[in-house]
Write a structure and sequence with these properties.
- The protein is α/β, with parallel strands linked by helices.
- The protein has a single domain (4-57, 98-334), classed as TIM Barrel.
- It is built from 14 helices and eleven strands.
- The strands form three sheets. The protein has a six-stranded parallel beta sheet with strand order 1-11-10-9-8-7, sandwiched between helices.
- Strand 3 (70-73) and strand 4 (79-82) form a beta hairpin.
- It is globular and about 60 Å long.
Length: 336
């Protein structure tokens, strides 16, 4: 029997897997609102991709819960305010209100104290494809630290202080990826939400100048250690897909349904793996089961190239459990 790990690798290498690998993303909202249906989906369609715990020797300091109503302070000291149980809140007051506060920034070195032996044992004891527990997100982390409004001004001004902030944040994420790359996980991951509904949040030219070099270093670390590397980015990101392919990114998770899926397929199918998804803005909360089946067929027809697609969707606020179920059922029927 082909293992989950083998299925995912065959998919990433376009080697005709026997079925499309599965990966359900979920928020606590799904467990709170649909506990029985959530359990049924997980049991009927178990994930082929899982994330390794860090088994950290030193725990970072945090306060509160990221998905409960109230205040949560993360390991960087960023304060999130949450108004809805089961989702993640927003930063209302930046940690770095002005550049004098930059000297107070202390990246969470505790997250570098992973227990390699325990992580490797975790990988040995599963036949599923294992992702590392690091999650570099330089653009978003700087928004949490500075606020989105301030950061956009910073990017326009391109001040020396911004360059110092990038150096601190990116330098920390390089160290985090390096320690995880030395474990037995199958892949590493990074993310940044780059798209609005119809365009990037900054110009492609500015993205290529400032952020593309950072991502190249992340991807190079993974490949130098024999790992695959995945990226998530919400929004319209068509303009930077050629760059991600050029950098050698193995898989990308994006909101396909706000872009031209067929055009993306003509340009990139067989060059990068599409790690989901199915439209969570309209179809998962408001569509019928038949709509979901048609959407999955559309993705398969446009993007599948003897692999190159992972059956992924998000079970989050508003999503109907029968629609989430239909995503994986349809994929199973199409490629099995």
């Amino acid at each position: 029997m082909t293992t989950s790990r083998a299925l995912v690798k065959q998919t990433l290498e376009f080697k005709s897997p026997k079925r499309v690998p599965r990966h359900l993303w979920w928020l606590d909202w799904a467990k709170y609102h649909y506990p029985n249906e959530f359990k049924q989906i997980q049991e009927r369609f178990p994930d082929d991709i899982i994330t390794a715990p860090g088994f950290h020797k030193t725990q970072p300091t945090t306060s509160g819960s990221p998905t409960e109503v109230g205040t949560y302070i993360d390991e960087w000291g960023c304060v999130f305010t949450n108004l809805q149980r089961g989702v993640i809140g927003e930063v209302k007051q930046p940690f770095i209100k002005d550049w004098d506060d930059l000297s107070k920034l202390s990246p969470p070195e505790e997250l570098l104290t992973i227990d390699v032996d325990q992580i490797n044992a975790f990988c040995r004891n599963t036949d599923r494809f294992v992702m590392g527990g690091a999650l570099p997100r330089p653009f978003e982390r700087m928004q949490f630290l500075r606020s989105s409004q301030n950061l956009y001004i910073d990017l326009a001004e391109n001040s020396p202080q911004l360059q110092e902030l990038i150096h601190i944040v990116h330098g920390y994420f390089l160290k985090e990826l390096e320690v995880w790359a030395k474990t037995d996980v199958d892949a590493l991951m990074f993310m940044d939400d780059w798209g609005a509904q119809r365009a990037l949040l900054i110009s492609p030219k500015q993205w290529r100048k400032i952020f593309k070099p950072l991502y190249k270093e992340y991807i190079d670390i993974a490949h130098a250690h024999g790992k695959y590397i995945f990226m998530h980015s919400d929004g319209y990101i068509r303009d930077i897909l050629p760059d991600l392919v050029e950098l050698g990114l193995d898989a990308v998770n994006s909101q396909l349904f706000i872009m031209d899926i067929e055009e993306i397929g003509r340009s990139f199918a067989g060059k990068i793996t599409f790690w989901g998804e199915i439209d969570r803005q309209h179809l998962l909360p408001h569509g019928s089961v038949e709509d979901i089946a048609a959407a999955v067929r559309r993705v398969k027809n446009a993007l599948y190239a003897d692999g190159g697609v992972i059956a992924q969707c998000e079970f989050g606020p508003g999503a109907k459990p029968e629609n989430v179920y239909a995503v994986f059922k349809t994929w199973e029927e199409l490629v099995s």
